[in-house]
Amino acid sequence: MTVLVDLGTDGAGNSVPMDLEELLATRLLVQGNSGSGKSHLLRRLLEKSAGQVQQVVIDPEGDFVTLSDAYGHVVIDALDHSEREITTFAARLREHRASVVLNLEGLEADGQMRCAAWFLSALFDAPREHWYPALVVVDEAQLFAPTGGGEVPEDVRRASLGAMTNLMCRGRKRGLAGVIATQRLAKLAKNVAAEASNFLMGRTFLDIDMARAADLLGMERRQAEQIRDLARGNFLALGPALSRRPVSVKIGDVETSARSGSPKLTPLPTAPAEDMKDLLFAELEEAPPPPPPPTPKKQALETLMEKLAASVSQQTPSAAALPEKEPEEVEAIIADTLRAIVADSDSAFRAPPVLFQDFQVRCRMAGLSPPPLDLAQFTRRLSCARAGIFDAPGEEWEAAIALADTLPDDMLGTFLLVARAAKDGAPCPSEEQLAETYGTSSLGRVRRLIAYIEERDLFVTRVDLAGKRSITLPHLGWSTAPAEV
């Protein structure tokens, strides 16, 4: 099915369409200096293709959140969410084919890059059955795929660049069509820019950027000067989804607008200089102190829940305290409560501080007040429970837990699930089981997790000729049986 998106008109007033199906297969690169109309172009493309294809927008300045009211895009404010929540949102939007705007406004540069890397990697790692076609629009792409290191940590830069490279180089088979916009081609990593087959080049002034734009458009170097003369909102278009020869296009009107527009000149005040001076220096010594800095927009969910959990745990029991119970009875209640929490299918994707609130309520209902575990102890026991170890780990688990302590906290459950199977000589847990314990739907993340643990010499993985995997814990001498197919 051919779907044409009307971008605008050429010099003769004829419509310039973009073949949406071809765009999904060949990707798009937009370049133009600040004020050349890149965001306007992206907005036109998004508006005209809304309802035809799923849309995912990486928005560093919060310009595209206004699409929500008119076209139903779901806005995710990255400032309000944790890594696990961001990756969960990405997995769910691929499954349910929701159009989303990831608003990165308010984050520092390294925070924006880190969040974009989480989000794009989760899109890329979605299960094969969720590989539906989607436009992934990245504004200011030079921020997420820079040519140099800049002032951000190297690991953040590499993660962001790797996610952008996957989007542009390998995303097509997964249904992800990258649409990236940049102010300067010279600042955008070449291996990211080179994967686009469609180009819309707007006004630019630096010789190096004009030369690269001319090369991409198949123009001679002496013709590059016309790129400098392009009016705002005018672009040179080339590519299989646009035109076989460079054509000038004036981008059409849009129905929505960004929350912040270009500055406009307004008349200056007409007060005499003496009066203005009096206004500036009036009662200077008695002036009120400056207002305090604005508070953050909203605390991250996990931080908020941790504070709530701490406040509840610090409360003293009431005068009518419940009778004390024997340690064995307390332990039985804890084990039963953990079984009930783990049995809830939604608990795998809920943060430990949130589940701790549920744990406290269940304990009170069972007659335990105050709750027998604090947040840190609960998080540890929860990881054990997700591995099928509901009772307090005994001496036989001391060595395994000591090894697990060398890993990040969120990997404890996955490590212990494999350790439990290895201790019992049971078949190696499947990737789906490991994903559920880790709290993800991405099998790619599970494979990277196993590789991470193996790099630390805690796992030794073997795959037999039938393709069945087994894992050995060399420090403990435990080994799983080959995985069941």
Write out the strand line-up for the largest beta sheet, numbering strands in chain order: 2-1-11-10-9-3-8-7-4-6-5
Low-confidence stretches: 311-320
Mean pLDDT over the full residue set: 81
The percent range for strand residues is 5-15%
From the structure above, extract its key features.
Rossmann fold; ATP-binding; HerA-like; alpha/beta; ATP-binding protein; Arc Repressor Mutant, subunit A; 18 helices; ATP binding; 3-stranded antiparallel sheet; 485 residues
Summary, kept brief:
Keywords: ATP-binding, Nucleotide-binding. This protein is of the alpha/beta class and 485 residues long.
Describe what this molecule looks like in 3D.
The protein has helices spanning 20-26, 38-49, 67-71, 83-96, 109-124, 154-170, 190-193, 207-217, 225-228, 273-281, 301-313, 327-343, 352-365, 375-386, 398-404, 412-424, 431-438, 443-455, and strands at 4-9, 15-19, 28-31, 54-59, 74-77, 100-103, 134-138, 176-182, 198-201, 234-239, 243-251, 460-463, 469-473, 478-479. It is an alpha/beta fold and 485 residues long. The chain has 3 domains: 4-251, 3-Layer(aba) Sandwich (Rossmann fold); 299-392, no CATH class; 393-485, Arc Repressor Mutant, subunit A. Strands 2-1-11-10-9-3-8-7-4-6-5 form an 11-stranded mixed beta sheet. The protein has a 3-stranded antiparallel beta sheet with strand order 12-13-14, covered by helices on one side. The longest helix has 17 residues, at 154-170.
